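Worked problem 6 (solution included).
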Amino acid sequence: MALFKNVPYDHLSWTQGHRHTQFSLKAKDYLYVEGDNPNYVFTLFSGWIKLYKSLGCGKKQVLRFALPGDFLGFQGSLDGLMLHSAQALDHCVVCAFPRDQIQELFCKEPAIGNEMIMMNAQVMSVCQEYLLSTGVRNAQERIAFLMLELFSRLRLLGRFREENISENSAIVPITQEDIADAVGMTQIHVNRMLQQMKEERLLSCANGRLEILDNDALVKLANFDPKLLEIRPMYGVR
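Solution. The predicted structure is:
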C-alpha cells in the first residue's frame, strides 16, 4: 500500500506487526461516523470510501473520495473525535492500526512518517482546489475538475482500466447524488450538466462508468494541473 512503499523490505514484518486486523465493508457500511472516537487508524487496501461532513438538516458535503492506499482516521490529535464520516461506496478491504501505537511506528520507521507528511500535504493542496471550485468555478468546471482528479488518481494507482473498456474509461462507484454533494450542486443540476457535457463530447459518467472523451478540453475547462497529484519528496529525505 502507498503508505508503506518506502519502508525497507526487511522492516516490513515489524511494520505489519503493528497492524491489528484487516476487515471488509459492504457498500453503504460506515468505517466511522462524525463524533466517533475510534481506537484505530486505517489504510484502505481496496475499494472506495466517501469522506463527508453533514449538517443537522441532512445536507452533506463530500470532502474526498478515498482510494486504495489512502490513510484514514488520522487527525492532529490522535485521541480526538472524528470530524467527518467515512462510508463505503462499494466492497472495501481496510487495515486497522491501533492509534496508541502510531507514534511508535513513526519513530521506528521515519519513512512512514515522512510519507504521511507528504500525503497530507497533497490532500491539503487538493482540498484548496475544491474550495476554489466552490467559490469560483462554474458548474461545468466543478464537475470537470472532480472527474479529472478522480481519473488521474486512478491512473496513478494503475487501476484506471477494466476489462472490455477503453483506456479513457474507469469504473467509478459514485452516484449523481455523490457528485452533487462533492461539487456543491443539486442532483438535478448535476444531471443536467452531465448530459450537456456528454453532448459536447467532454465526458460521460453513467452507471458507474466514467469516460473521458476530450481530456485536453477538460483540462483547459477545469484549469487542472496534473502535477497537483504528485507527491514530492521532502528536502533532504530519501
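Discussion: The radius of gyration is 18 Å.
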